[in-house]
Write a structure and sequence with these properties.
The protein is mostly helical. It has a single domain, classed as Cytochrome c oxidase-like, subunit I domain (Cytochrome C Oxidase, Chain A). The chain has 15 helices and two strands. The protein has a two-stranded antiparallel ribbon. The longest helix has about 35 residues. It is globular and about 65 Å long. The two termini are about 30 Å apart. Bound molecules: copper (I) ion.
């Protein structure tokens, strides 16, 4: 790993394991986040394998329904709070200081605290599996009234969500403070690389939504353990109110997981196109626009909850509006590639794969935004297919691409290119085998979150499960490649990707004078 582990306080790094526990160095903390996320990917992935094993055949054969529900709930929470968010924060730690020309994050000790709070929170969440009654079973959305009938361990799940929320808020404060206060002279906001911009916007989203989630789950805690009735109809409360509170957090949370992924893609594509990003300023405003509108669309998750038609229509139109700035971003990535000197090393394969699979998820999102159509899709496997195209086909692909792209910079070693390409092709094919049939299952009426199903759903479920096993096994290639790179990859050169005009590593996307300049010659 990085050899420059000196802290900003001028002391040398602590010896041995204490270095990693006490570190305030942004690169060390970035490595910690990424390593933690990598471990959680296999934990959450193992839960997905349990789910798909059970669903490979109709009937109950592997696990009992209670355990299935616990796996389904924890899979969601682990993937969101343990894998995608920590990985993106890991990228922020590594890249934001380097991209704005800062010596470290603005608040290095807080940075260390953010990481270890996350570890404490996630450990507590996983420990609920071992408690009497097991972990919670109502899905990561924790809808009342089911969540008011949960085992004792629910209190610990809520506390773990509080810990992880505090971790996210502190991390976001650090990113905003770094970007606003520690930019090098001449690094104007509208000259920052797009990855920095994506995290700058995301950090504000997190600071707004995390307290809302904390408030919501605290009210659940009070209803469940202290006799209040915020969400309990029997005491005059409203279960639908919980859905409003939850999705006011939950929808922007989706953008927390995708905007930094957009940032990663916006760095990779210019490098492998040997051109500056097309439409830099439009990309920045699109990010801001998406995050702004994301606060006005939460009830598109609740069209069937009995809202007035006028409200349904408002949330339908607002949701469809988000397709505009998102479309601008997709267009600009493709325009960046247009007439570029393209090469397709592993990071670029993942970036182009991202555009395809993420866009499929985007299109099904537009389908579900339509109120009358959503009545058909609601609570069906179609929804599962949709958000896995966005989160696995989108964010996870961007993370893989980003790791391959920056690993030589971070470790000084080169990964195995052929193995990386094999990982990409196995991943993209198995991902589609895994998730595409789920659209058909949902349209044919298979509900989500069930351990058993009617016989007519057997074939597509089996195909989906086979895709899942191949997808899971493919990630072992990635694990091997990364570990091997860190330990004994061959020396990386200064300009691994041979990007023209210094468009490499930390600065591919700053604003050029204008975006129509000719593609520069390679060499
Ligand atoms: Cu949403």
């Amino acid at each position: 790993m990085s050899t420059e582990a000196t802290t900003v306080h001028g002391h040398g790094p602590a010896p041995g394991i204490m270095r990693w526990i006490t570190t305030t160095n942004h690169k060390d903390i970035g490595t910690l986040y990424l390593t933690f996320s990598f471990i959680m990917l296999f934990v959450g992935g193992a839960m997905a394998m349990v789910i798909r094993s059970e669903l490979a055949q109709p009937g109950l054969q592997i696990v009992n329904p209670d355990f299935f529900n616990q796996m389904m709930t924890l899979h969601g929470l682990v993937m969101i709070f343990g894998v995608l968010m920590p990985a993106l924060v890991g990228f922020a730690n590594w890249l934001v200081p380097m991209q704005v020309g800062a010596p470290d994050m603005a608040l290095p000790r807080l940075n260390n605290w953010s990481f270890w709070l996350l570890v404490a929170g996630m450990s507590m969440l996983l420990s609920t599996l071992l408690m009497p009654g097991g972990a919670m079973e109502m899905g990561w959305t924790m809808y009342a009234p089911q969540s008011l009938q949960t085992p004792f361990s629910f209190a610990f799940s809520i506390f773990s969500i509080h810990l992880m929320g505090i971790s996210s808020i502190l991390g976001s404060i650090n990113i905003i403070a770094t970007i606003l206060n520690l930019r090098a002279p001449g690094m104007k906001l509208l000259k920052m690389p797009l990855f920095c911009w994506s995290w700058f916007v995301t950090a504000f989203l997190l600071i707004v939504i995390m307290p809302v989630l904390a408030g919501g789950v605290t009210m659940l805690l009070f209803d469940r353990f202290f006799g209040t009735s915020f969400f309990d109809a029997a005491g005059g409360g409203s279960p639908v109110l919980f859905q409003h509170v939850f999705w006011f957090f939950g929808h922007p949370e989706v953008y927390v997981m995708i905007l930094p992924a957009f940032g990663i893609i916006s760095e990779i594509i210019p490098t492998f196109s040997r051109k500056p990003i097309f439409g830099y300023t439009a990309m920045v405003y699109a990010l801001a626009c998406i995050s702004f509108i994301s606060f006005a669309v939460w009830a598109h998750h609740m069209f069937t909850s009995g809202m007035p038609t006028a409200a349904n229509l408002f949330f339908m139109y607002a949701s469809m509006l988000i397709a505009v700035p998102t479309g601008i971003k997709i267009f600009n990535w493709i325009a960046t590639m247009w007439r570029g000197s393209l090469t397709f090393e592993t990071p670029m394969l993942f970036a182009t794969g991202f555009i395809v699979t993420f866009t499929i998820g985007g299109f099904t999102g537009v389908m579900m935004a339509l109120v009358p159509a959503d009545f058909q899709y609601h609570n069906s496997y179609f929804i599962v297919a949709h958000f896995h195209y966005v989160l696995a086909g989108g964010t996870l692909m961007a993370l893989f691409g980003g790791i391959y792209y920056w690993l030589p910079k971070w470790t000084g070693h080169m990964y195995l290119e052929r193995l990386g390409k094999t990982h990409f092709w196995l991943t993209i094919i198995s991902l589609n085998v895994l998730f595409f049939p789920q659209h058909f299952l949902g349209l044919a009426g298979m509900p989500r979150r069930v351990p058993d199903y009617a016989l007519q759903f057997t074939d597509f479920n089996l195909i989906s499960s086979i895709g899942a096993f191949v997808f899971g096994a493919s990630q072992l290639l990635f694990l091997y490649n990364v570990v091997r790179t860190v330990h004994r990859g061959k020396q990386a050169t200064d300009r691994v990707w041979e990007g023209a005009h210094g468009l490499e590593w930390t600065v591919p996307s700053p604003a050029p004078y204008h975006t129509f300049q000719e593609a520069p010659d390679v060499k």
